[in-house]
């Protein structure tokens, strides 16, 4: 059991703190242009779409370096569209239009990522964000595979993500209405077959097997950091029980961690997943660029109020999980109780 340093313990104090922070962030958002709120991230996604033809054409080359460049372009673009694009879309951070938010979610989540938008929104927005680090609800337990040893999980398992993702999506379709299931299944097939068709007809692959192998290669290019980031930023931090969870500002400041700026991952995954994850959990409807803009405000506020602001490097978290894998990824996590904050 831990007290939250010198932070106000009563619920009214926690709500007042959150309201004060929200007002500060709201002022920053109101003073920002459309380009800052949405344009920067939309431009990154548009550039990724426009770069795809160059990637497919590079794969026609017999030059190893040009071929590798094509794989790199397609791999980075794939993760920019599927991780950054899907993440922003399901949070409604790409546009202020609800109709367009739904359309973008279908495109990025179902066509590009081969997953179901409904379950993505439910599992990520409602459960993970609504119950961050609450055991059995939003505790990132879906990333735990205790039957795998540390080396298989950290180094080999990421290669299976492109295969597992559509299979999990199809399994989830049993739980949605028939019309939505048929739509999702059709959009997933459209995305996968389009990728396969382009490799055969634009990149010039001669056999289905080689085209499928290239699909797996490009779709798993950044799978390792994708898996690692998803466990680094929550697991190993305080976990809470469902009946004794703290107030929102304490839950997010204690249970979320920022990584440092990493150019490739900032581009492909987005600031809200990498260096501004605390800000994202506090204000999930902000775009990546706006999370980066309000980061100084949030960090200064939490430090002034003597609330936690967790930060660590990628390598430090990597070695922590590799050395304490059994404790962090296999055993049941201990429950943290914060006196007076429940």
Task: Report on this structure.
There is one protein chain. With 342 residues, the chain is mainly alpha-helical. It is built from 16 helices and two strands. A two-stranded parallel sheet has the order 1-2. Helix 1 (11-30) packs across helix 14 (288-304), helix 3 (64-90) packs across helix 9 and helix 8 packs across helix 9. It starts with 10 loop residues before the first helix and ends in a 12-residue tail after the last helix. Residues 1-9 have low confidence and may be disordered.
Short descriptors:
single chain; 342 residues; mainly alpha; two-stranded parallel sheet; lipid metabolism; transmembrane helix; membrane; Fatty acid desaturase 6
What's the topology here?
Layout (H helix, E strand, L loop, with lengths): L10 H20 L3 H25 L5 H27 L7 H15 L4 H13 L20 H7 L4 H12 L5 H24 L6 H12 L3 H10 L15 H8 L1 E2 L4 H6 L8 H6 L5 H17 L5 E2 L2 H10 L1 H6 L12
Parallel strand pairs: 1-2
Helix pairs in contact: 1-14, 2-3, 3-4, 3-9, 4-8, 8-9
Pfam families: FA_desaturase (PF00487)
Protein name: Fatty acid desaturase 6
Keywords: Fatty acid biosynthesis, Fatty acid metabolism, Lipid biosynthesis, Lipid metabolism, Membrane, Transmembrane, Transmembrane helix
- Determine the strand fraction and express it as a percent band: under 5%
Order of helices and strands: HHHHHHHHHHHEHHHEHH
C-alpha-based Rg, rounded: 21 Å
Please work out how many helical segments DSSP would assign. 16
Number of DSSP E strands: 2
Euclidean distance between termini CA atoms: 12 Å
Structural class: mainly alpha
Mean pLDDT over the residues: 92
| Main sheet summary | 2 strands, parallel
Low-confidence stretches: 1-9
Strand order of the largest sheet: 1-2
Shape: globular
Give the proportion of residues in helices: 55-70%
């Amino acid at each position: 059991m831990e007290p939250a340093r010198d932070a106000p313990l009563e619920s009214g104090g926690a709500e007042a703190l959150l309201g004060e922070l929200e007002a500060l962030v709201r002022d920053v958002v109101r003073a920002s242009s459309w380009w800052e709120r949405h344009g920067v991230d939309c431009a990154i996604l548009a550039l990724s779409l426009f770069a795809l033809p160059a990637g497919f054409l590079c794969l026609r080359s017999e030059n190893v370096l040009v071929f590798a460049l094509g794989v790199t372009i397609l791999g980075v673009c794939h993760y920019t569209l599927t991780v950054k694009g899907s993440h922003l879309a399901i949070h409604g951070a790409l546009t202020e239009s609800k109709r367009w938010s739904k359309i973008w979610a279908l495109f990025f989540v179902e066509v590009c990522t081969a997953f179901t938008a409904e379950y993505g929104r439910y599992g990520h927005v409602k459960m993970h964000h609504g119950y961050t680090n609450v055991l059995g609800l939003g505790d990132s337990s879906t990333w735990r595979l205790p039957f795998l040893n540390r080396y298989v999980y950290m180094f080999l398992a990421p290669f299976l993500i492109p295969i597992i993702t559509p299979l999990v999506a199809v399994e989830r379709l049993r739980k949605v209405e028939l019309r939505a299931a048929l739509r999702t299944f059709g959009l997933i097939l459209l995305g996968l077959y389009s990728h396969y068709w382009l490799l055969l007809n634009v990149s010039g692959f001669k056999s289905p097997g080689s085209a499928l192998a290239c699909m797996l290669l490009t779709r798993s290019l950044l799978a390792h950091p994708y898996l690692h980031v998803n466990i680094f930023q929550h697991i190993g931090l305080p976990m809470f029980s469902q009946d004794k969870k703290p107030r929102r500002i304490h839950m997010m400041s204690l249970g979320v961690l920022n990584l440092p700026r990493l150019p490739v991952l900032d581009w492909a995954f987005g600031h809200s997943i990498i260096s501004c994850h605390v800000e994202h959990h506090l204000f999930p409807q902000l775009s990546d660029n706006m999370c980066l803009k309000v980061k100084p405000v949030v960090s200064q506020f939490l430090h002034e109020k003597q609330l936690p602001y967790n930060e660590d490097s990628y390598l430090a978290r990597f070695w922590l999980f590799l050395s304490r894998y059994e404790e962090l990824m296999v055993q049941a996590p201990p429950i943290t109780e914060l006196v007076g904050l429940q």
